[in-house]
């Protein structure tokens, strides 16, 4: 069984894959103040409560955009499962043209691009990831990494409003009934949800104009299902896209 770990700026997503499907997924808050011992107790408890035996886990792969947590999580995996996890980087086999992968490309985006190219072989594909950052990662039909656009994520934008204004409240993001908000909460929902829907469509359209072709678009990330009804450009909305990328990378590297 494969242990797949996606360490993001806001959450650590942990999944167990039995070779055919995900049997368990866990979501932890990314807290750099926690010690590796604290994370080890949490992970050990989650695995035990799921009914999975530690001996069943014989492979592990880690993607991380938080360097301070990478070593802690890898240390935990070694202690709990006696495994050396595969770390996602541009130096492993991805199915992409290696020379086209930027040095600074985050491992989460590498997972997204690899699985997008695998899902739509021979086609140009963009993955829109609604996470802490809103990212647009595009891969060409031949597996060449074409580039990435990055904007603040939806929750990041809302939190910035809440933190930097005296009277605006923190709100739950959902589709507003009208663009004309009549309360602070509805006004923020209107600006964020409808504004970001326009941003996403604009980036997709600009990318297509620059490339001179239509592209396939996949949405993923925590808020993808919430905002996707406002955007008619997604071929697929897949909350497990990055995790599926980790599984694919494990297979491509015979790990």
Brief digest:
The chain has 255 residues and is an alpha/beta fold. It is 38% helix and 22% strand. It is built from 7 helices and 10 strands.
Which terms summarize this structure?
255 residues, 22% strand, Nucleotidyltransferase, domain 5, alpha/beta, five-stranded mixed sheet, 2 domains
Provide the low-confidence segments as ranges.
Answer: none
Helix share of residues? 25-40%
The name of the CATH superfamily of the largest domain reads ATPase, nucleotide binding domain
CATH architecture descriptor name of the largest domain: 2-Layer Sandwich
Please tell me how large the radius of gyration is. Answer: 19 Å
CATH topology of the largest domain: Nucleotidyltransferase, domain 5
Strand content of the residues, in percent? 15-25%
The largest β sheet comes out as:
5 strands, mixed
Spatial separation of the terminal alpha carbons: 11 Å
Strand order of the main beta sheet, please?
3-2-1-4-5
Quickly give the structural class: alpha/beta
Mean pLDDT: 94
Total of domains: 2
Total beta strands? 10
Number of helices: 7
The CATH top-level class label of the largest domain = Alpha Beta
So what's the overall shape? globular
Helix-strand string? EEEHEHEHEEEHHEHEH
Report on the architecture of this protein:
The chain is α/β, with parallel strands linked by helices. The chain has two domains: 86 residues, Nucleotidyltransferase, domain 5; 149 residues, Nucleotidyltransferase, domain 5. Helices cover 38% and strands 22% of the residues. Strands 3-2-1-4-5 form a five-stranded mixed sheet, with helices on both faces. Strands 8-7-6-9-10 form a five-stranded mixed sheet, sandwiched between helices. Helix 1 crosses helix 2.
């Amino acid at each position: 069984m494969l242990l797949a770990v996606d360490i993001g700026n806001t959450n650590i997503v942990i999944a167990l894959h039995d070779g055919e499907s995900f049997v368990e997924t866990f979501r932890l808050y990314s807290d750099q103040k926690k010690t590796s011992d604290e994370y080890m107790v949490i992970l050990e408890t989650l695995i035990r409560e799921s009914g999975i035996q530690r001996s069943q886990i014989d492979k592990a792969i880690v993607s991380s955009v938080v360097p301070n947590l990478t070593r802690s999580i890898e240390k935990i995996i070694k202690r709990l499962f006696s495994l050396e996890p595969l770390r996602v980087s541009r130096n492993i086999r991805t199915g992409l043209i290696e020379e086209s992968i930027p040095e600074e490309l985050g491992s989460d985006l590498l997972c997204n691009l690899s699985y997008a190219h695998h899902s739509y072989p021979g086609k140009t594909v963009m993955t829109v990831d609604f996470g802490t950052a809103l990212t647009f990662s595009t891969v060409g039909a031949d597996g060449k990494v074409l580039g990435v656009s990055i904007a603040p994520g939806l929750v990041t934008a809302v939190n910035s409003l809440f933190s930097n204004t005296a009277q605006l409240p923190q709100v739950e993001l959902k589709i507003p009934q009208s663009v004309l908000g009549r309360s602070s909460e509805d006004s923020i929902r209107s600006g964020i949800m409808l504004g970001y829907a326009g941003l996403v469509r604009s980036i997709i359209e600009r990318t297509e104009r620059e490339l001179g072709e239509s592209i396939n678009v996949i949405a993923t990330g925590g808020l993808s299902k919430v905002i996707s009804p406002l955007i008619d450009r997604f071929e697929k909305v897949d909350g497990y896209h990055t995790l599926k990328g980790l599984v694919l990378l494990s297979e491509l590297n015979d790990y």
